[in-house]
Write a structure and sequence with these properties.
The chain is mainly beta. The longest helix has 19 residues. The radius of gyration is 22 Å and the shape is globular. The chain starts with 6 loop residues before the first helix and ends with a strand. The N terminus is likely disordered.
Length: about 375
Amino acid sequence: MHTTLFPWRLVLLALLASALAFGAGAQQAPPRIQPDSGPWDSGAGFDFDLGKKKIKKTRQSVSGIACNLDASQRRFCLVVFDEGAQARYAQIGNKALTIDAEPVVLRDTADELDAEGAATDGRYFYVTGSHSAKRGDCASNPGSRHVLRLRLDPATGRALRSPGGSALADRADTGRLWAIMQAQPGLAPHVGERKCLGSEPPEEAPALAGQQGVNIEGLAAQGGRLYFGFRGPVLKDTALVLAVDADALFDAQAARDPKATVTRLALGANRGIRDMVAVKTGFLLLAGPDDSRASQGAGWTVAWWDGKADAGRVVQPKILAALDLSRVKLRKCDKETKPEAMMVLEETPAAYRLLVLSDGMCDGGPLAFTVAR
């Protein structure tokens, strides 16, 4: 027998199917987690040969961290800052950082590198500049258009130094990423001179327009590839990751194909990538407010992505947790809490133990979190 459905029954079935499809693809709100401990002690803090006011500002500008084990299984980390062009080392201890006084000159220049990300693959440290225009007035900043590679010394866990000296023995510096970004359709409109960050006019140049200019803030290394995470642009609530072949990027002749891919990640409304780190099954992403002033209340989350590139669709990472920073007490040297750097203390089948460092807090104000997988 043929049964005819009345129109209202057809509408009801369509609504039910739509709800089921939405439920299958949507994620539940992630758990809000507070720090297990922190801010960790860092002794006298990072030391710089600068004026008193400039030292404090630089200590408050931690923006990336990458860690290795030395021959004695101690964890040494390269810490980078978005002020100046130097990095420092720190040893991770029991709820404390032991600061190394040795300066690490990334670039011997007066230009602002604006180092925003650091990573390691066990052979090298990598450091990236933001490749962005100046935030206040959209001035071009060619000094930030560099990616550096420092060969590791497995005995010390630090970058390899020249015999009997403190100079880096094997340092490569490339500006090739700028041209690679210009060749990617998803990035090209946002790469260029004076490309203002975010969607509003800059405070110091109100006659200009926000252009969602590129701003790299995350860097990770895995499988011979470097992954650059963008705080901006954020387009239709998706953040971008550019992956390239690491050795090809540093090819002095620029003859090797970097095999670049751009992946769009749905990290939530108004959130870009603030840092990323490789784990056994992919990457952890630290997401936070993008470059638009109207987005600053978006909050910070930690997400997991399997690392698979897909240029044809928006990829939905698994949002593991939202960071609850409401009870973090600022110290005398701190200005504000803005998570900018992340490293993995421990990875277990059940959880990740993370150390998160913030721009605006002296020496990063390290906070430890346990994030369920």
